[in-house]
Amino acid sequence: MKKAIIIGSGAGGATAAKMLSSHFDVTVLEQGKAFKPFSFPLEQLAKFRKTGLYFDERLIQLLLPNMRIDRNPEMVMVYGRGLGGTTTLATGNAVRADEGLKKIGINLDAEFDELFQELPITTDHQSRWLPITKRTFEVMKDMGLDPQPMPKLLRPQQCRMCGHCSIGCPTRAKWDTRELLDGIKVITGCKVTHIDIDDRRARRVHVTRGSRHETYEADVIIVAAGGYGTPDILRNSGIDCQPHLFVDPVLCVAAPMANVHQDRQLLMPFVSIRDKYIISPYMDWLSFFFNKQWYKPMDGMVSLMIKLADVEQGDVHDNRMQKTLTVTDHEYLKRGVDDCREVLMRLGANEKDIFLGTLNAGHPGGMLPLTAAEADSLHSPLLPDNMYVADASILPQSLGLPPILTIMALAKRIAKNIINQ
Length: 421
Ligand SMILES: Cc1cc2nc3c(=O)[nH]c(=O)nc-3n(C[C@H](O)[C@H](O)[C@H](O)COP(=O)(O)OP(=O)(O)OC[C@H]3O[C@@H](n4cnc5c(N)ncnc54)[C@H](O)[C@@H]3O)c2cc1C
Ligand code: SF4
Description:
Blueprint: E1 3-7, H1 11-20, E2 25-29, H2 42-47, H3 60-63, E3 67-71, E4 76-80, H4 99-103, H5 109-118, E5 121-122, H6 131-142, E6 148-149, E7 152-153, E8 185-187, E9 191-198, E10 201-209, E11 212-217, E12 220-223, H7 226-236, E13 249-256, E14 270-273, E15 277-281, H8 285-290, E16 301-308, E17 315-317, E18 320-322, H9 327-346, E19 355-356, E20 360-361, E21 387-389, H10 404-419
Parallel strand pairs: 1-2, 1-12, 2-8, 4-20, 12-21
Antiparallel strand pairs: 3-4, 5-7, 6-14, 9-10, 10-11, 13-16, 13-19, 13-20, 14-15, 15-16, 17-18
Helix pairs in contact: 1-10
The protein binds flavin-adenine dinucleotide (FAD) and iron/sulfur cluster (SF4).
């Protein structure tokens, strides 16, 4: 049987591994370790906020090692490192977001149909919305913001409505890509540094594993180390990427509101899709712990997230982001903030009490964007013939929407192309 190596076990990597496993001897190389959800009592930790202990978001890594944080003066980047990649930290939103792909001639109807058949995607969580969620939904409807229940990768009967979706689901009610990896050989704690390329063939994958250096050979190699990990591997292997980084920045707008318990709500239960941004209820744990303006009772605030489709410009080197928002980005963010202020005031908040969260982002991608010329092959001519990229790096434009399903659809098509070669 031919051998395939997949680098990364997140949305793209696990999907490709599962698809190829019936035709290839597949090995997944994953830098992180097994995922463990955050297990410390948030109420107790919240009491320490005023001690000044939580001075830097990067401290989260001590308590939740599978969450990685990078920050520059403008924003904080959050991504996953561990089995399941960033999907273990996702809020479970399952959205088709392939407008940019359609524009360059890529039709993924068949792959999305398969995903909707194969995955536990549901909006069957509405009956458990809290009163504040229902009221916010009605207010946004009255404002013409057209809120819609969010389709979720979720088994609702297992959901405790604990609100911890972005720090790891304690019950595994929320689906993530670890479920695709049963029966597949996965080597964790294994950082891919570079790939030897010669005569348009990828020959050898170099990894560091603890203090050891190892190499792996395969007939096909798929790089799916995510929008943050893949550019470094490609560049170290002599393949150039473009400074075309998008991140889908997130800004929360919140107000104090006694005893509403938004902290006990499934995150992002519904969504309003606007031009270039979305709005959705979201308890922002990052701001709650690390932003002084958020030092309020956990059960006593309402928070709305704005997620923006940013201008594709910026870079990542050695897992460090080089990115600033453009004037256009700031204009759209301001529109979102104005919408959220209006919603909060209609819910009864005082305008002067409204506060903003920490600007953060969790959807890096776009540094090896697909073009119309690659619409059939989904294979960049910059890559050797037997090497593919199958993660957020190949998305041609920022989405401002949850990307997991779209990355999975691309990874499925890439795996089919490889099988049919
Ligand atoms: C808090 C949060 C909530 C989110 N919620 C949602 C949501 O609800 N719905 C949604 O659609 N999207 C959501 N996202 C975004 C989504 O999770 C990511 O866009 C998606 O998982 C990216 O898939 P990927 O395959 O590109 O990379 P990832 O899923 O990040 O996987 C990359 C994998 O590669 C590994 N890796 C990296 N470098 C190396 C290396 N050198 N060697 C070996 N392995 C390596 C990493 O450890 C990781 O496991 C969220 C993101 C965050 C941060
Ligand atoms: S709210 Fe439900 S899906 Fe989210 S972490 Fe809690 S149990 Fe899991």
